[in-house]
């Protein structure tokens, strides 16, 4: 900007309108550069949103570690709310447990399911505006004397990368 001011002085100081326009254009260029950087990050799958971090599901979770929102158990399945997915990308899901579970996500009406395991780290593709249907299935559940389904606890973490 110092060069522009020096030129303005050489030209008699009557170019304040031009200097204002130059400042506005420089501001617009900076905004466009930021937008391009954000779009490049999306194209390279460098943005992420944590869906769950060390959250316990099913029964017998340690205090303050259980799922308080975004999940609901129906029999041996624990449904997880993924939230908004504005871009195609992938889910990185991991879990630890003493029991056998798998994780599934519905992508364009196709269920993608991990192998059944006592622990795992998996990446599953998701499409733009995915339905958000995702669930864990426990294979070591029992029925209580009251007829309820009891499944051993599972601690999981999940991140949406886009």
CATH top level label of the largest domain = Mainly Beta
> What is the helix fraction of residues, given as a range?
10-25%
Main sheet properties:
8 strands, antiparallel
Distance N to C terminus? 38 Å
Count the DSSP helices: 2
Question: How would you concisely characterize the structure shown here?
Answer:
The chain is of the alpha+beta class and 162 residues long. It has helices at 2-10, 16-43; strands at 48-57, 71-74, 77-81, 89-107, 110-113, 117-126, 133-138, 142-143, 149-150, 154-161.
Task: Describe the model.
This protein has 162 residues and is α+β, with helices and mostly antiparallel strands. It has 2 domains: 2-43; 48-161, Jelly Rolls. It is built from 2 helices and 10 strands. It has helices at residues 2-10, 16-43; strands spanning 48-57, 71-74, 77-81, 89-107, 110-113, 117-126, 133-138, 142-143, 149-150, 154-161. Strands 1, 2, 3, 4, 5, 6, 7 and 10 form an 8-stranded antiparallel sheet that branches. A two-stranded antiparallel ribbon has the order 8-9. Strand 4 and strand 5 form a beta hairpin.
What attributes does this structure have?
162 residues, alpha+beta, Jelly Rolls, 2 domains, eight-stranded antiparallel sheet, two-stranded antiparallel sheet
Q: How is the topology of this model organized?
A:
Layout lengths: L1 H9 L5 H28 L4 E10 L13 E4 L2 E5 L7 E19 L2 E4 L3 E10 L6 E6 L3 E2 L5 E2 L3 E8 L1
Antiparallel strand pairs: 1-10, 2-3, 3-7, 4-5, 4-6, 4-7, 4-10, 8-9
């Amino acid at each position: 900007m110092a060069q522009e001011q020096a030129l303005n002085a050489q030209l008699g100081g009557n170019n304040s309108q031009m200097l204002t326009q130059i400042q506005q254009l420089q501001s617009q260029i900076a905004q466009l550069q930021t937008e391009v950087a954000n779009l490049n990050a999306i194209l390279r799958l460098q943005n992420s949103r944590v869906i769950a971090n060390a959250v316990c599901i099913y029964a017998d979770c340690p205090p303050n570690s259980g799922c308080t929102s975004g999940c609901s158990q129906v029999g041996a399945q624990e449904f997880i709310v993924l939230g908004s997915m504005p871009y195609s990308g992938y889910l990185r899901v991991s879990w630890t447990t003493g029991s056998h579970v798998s994780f599934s996500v519905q992508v364009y009406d196709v269920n993608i399911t991990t192998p059944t395991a006592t622990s795992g780290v998996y990446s599953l593709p998701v499409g733009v505006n995915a339905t958000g249907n995702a669930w864990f299935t426990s294979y070591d559940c029992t029925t209580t004397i009251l007829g309820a389904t009891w499944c051993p606890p599972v601690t999981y973490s999940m991140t949406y990368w886009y």
